[in-house]
Amino acid sequence: MIIEYETRDHTALITLNRPEARNAVNHEVAEGIENALDEFEADDDLWTGILCANGPAFSAGADLKAISAGELNLATKRGGFGGIVARERIKPLIAAVDGPALAGGTELALACDLIVASKVARFGLPEVKRSLIASAGGLVRLPRVLPKNIAMQMALTGEPISAEKAHRFGMVNILVEAGEALNESLLLAEMINENAPLAVRATRRSLLESLTMNDNDGMKFAIEETAALAATEDYKEGPLAFIEKRPPIWKGK
């Protein structure tokens, strides 16, 4: 399958499986990612997802061979490019990058909430080298996770940066040795999954909304999210487990 999907406890793995094309995105890849995200989001027993890839590259971005052959639709209606960059999601998603993520590959990683990268990973927006523009989120999201001048230099020169540099500036959450990105992502997912899943989703939603709000509106939004959580079973379980000195048993309800 061009997109592999598997589950491990409360974690879903979505794997790009087109190594012969450096996991470049064509329409089949976009549809496969969207379908996998649909399955992940709909399963109440899955709390965190990981986007990873088989082969030496995370993704080379848009499949230029497919484009030159007349395949122009590398997106889905709901998800945009790759079935993910414009996708509305409620659950956290980690990008496990264990090789170059260039052009649309960088945009796939930026569409995730967290990035774990190995030292053989690279990130870049080389679109200008082909008289193109990074229109699938790269020019919007890159300056949010990197200093503006670093993002500007990447975008205008088309030259990539190393995973070490991306980590130093905060784009990459965790930097690991080659071959360890997926394992470390699974550990990170386990850390997230130790927490109440509905609270994690509300926290993610509040943080993302705060990026476009002033302080007062951001706090008001978080208070509204707290009120919604108060009606859940997990909201009662957290304090009860603390009082009874035992690990909480989350139901996601």
Description:
The chain is α/β, with parallel strands linked by helices. The chain folds into two domains: about 5-195, 2-enoyl-CoA Hydratase, Chain A, domain 1; about 195-245, Lyase 2-enoyl-coa Hydratase, Chain  A, domain 2, CATH 1.10.12. It has helices at about 25-40, 65-70, 105-110, 140-145, 150-155, 165-170, 180-195, 195-210, 215-230, 235-245, and strands spanning about 5-10, 10-15, 50-55, 75, 80, 95, 100, 115-120, 120-125, 160, 175. The strands form three sheets. Strands 1-2-3-6-8-11 form a six-stranded mixed β-sheet, with helices on both faces. A three-stranded mixed β-sheet has the order 7-9-10. A two-stranded antiparallel sheet has the order 4-5.
Tags for this entry?
253 residues, alpha/beta, 2-enoyl-CoA Hydratase, Chain A, domain 1, Lyase 2-enoyl-coa Hydratase, Chain  A, domain 2, 2 domains, six-stranded mixed beta sheet, three-stranded mixed beta sheet, 10 helices, 17% strand, globular
Strand elements, count: 11
Taken together, the total number of domains comes to 2
- What is the terminal separation in angstroms? 33 Å
Within CATH, the superfamily of the largest domain carries the name: 2-enoyl-CoA Hydratase, Chain A, domain 1
CATH hierarchy class name of the largest domain: Alpha Beta
Beta-strand residue fraction: 15-25%
By CATH, the topology of the largest domain is 2-enoyl-CoA Hydratase, Chain A, domain 1
- Percent helix, as a range, is 40-55%
Describe the largest sheet: 6 strands, mixed
Name the strands of the widest sheet in spatial order.
Answer: 1-2-3-6-8-11
Estimated radius of gyration: 19 Å
Shape descriptor = globular
* Second rung of CATH, namely the architecture of the largest domain: Alpha-Beta Complex
Oligomeric composition of the shown chains: single chain
Helix run count: 10
